[in-house]
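Predict the structure of LCP family protein.
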Amino acid sequence: MNEDFDLPEADGAIRRRPRRRRRTALIALLVVLCLIAVVGIVVGRYLYSLDNAYQKRTVVSLDDDNSGLSGSGTNILLLGSDKRNPQDAAAEKVSGQRSDTIMLVHIPADGGEAYIVSFPRDIYIDIPGHGKDRINSALAYGGLPLAVTTVENYTKTPIDHVALIDFDGIQGLVDSLGGVDVNIPKSFERDGSTFTQGTQHLDGKEALVFARERKSFADGDFQRNRDQQQLLKAIVVKMISRDTLTSPGKLKDAVENISPYLTTDDGLDSGTIVKLGLANRGLRGSDMHFLAAPHGDPYTTSGGASVVAGDEKGMEALRTALKDDTMEEYAAKAG
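Done. Here is the predicted structure for LCP family protein.
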């Protein structure tokens, strides 16, 4: 069973808390684009060329700042941007980017597994300094700093690292891997491509269409979130397969293709990833657990905006699990 995912770029400094076990960032990056396995598990003589390719990413500095939030384990925010049309962005007085993909990755203090929580892009919550709006508007209003603050406030959880990727980077990554085998949850057709329920081999172009589509489904963005989780897992499984890890050329191509579309905090440098990769060579797709953030039903605001209601009772349970590092129990109850 296989799967994938996506993200953009942004600028500005983000608040950073004292770093926890840096090895956990490995799983985060694996979840983002699998560069972990790419750069980390490769033998030393290939590191130089891979490092050069990885440097093409955009790096964001995170300032040390204790917001009063606490919790065990490590949390990484993963975002994917739609890179909105400049004219539309100007008309709405936003920066041109909204995070269509919002995932919070929690790695327990003992490492070894990852819990990936997807948030509906239209969930209606407080955006600091802007009142209530869709959660995906935070990136547009204030870049990565505001996106991080917004998610921290909503989950009451400190975010240790952040990564963003542009959707277009997924196409090059998947093609460099020779395509990926994705478990298609629901059949649909889009842009000349047919996606049939069950396992299907997708090339880069098809993977991009699959990850973006929501209008074909009755529950729209909710199904897209599930599809993106499937694509993410497919990429991870392919990246850590023997076929890929024993092919220096394929690994280098993967890093080369994805890095220009990637933004990370400066703590996820190639040296750190190498150490993390070597320490986590046993990680497999089955160690990643995908969940949906608690939410209510879609509704229309008094201003005519289509949004998704929050679920405070459900969020309190998630907040407690994140703080107490009990995501395994939470995931079992959530199914």
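The two ends are 18 Å apart (CA to CA).
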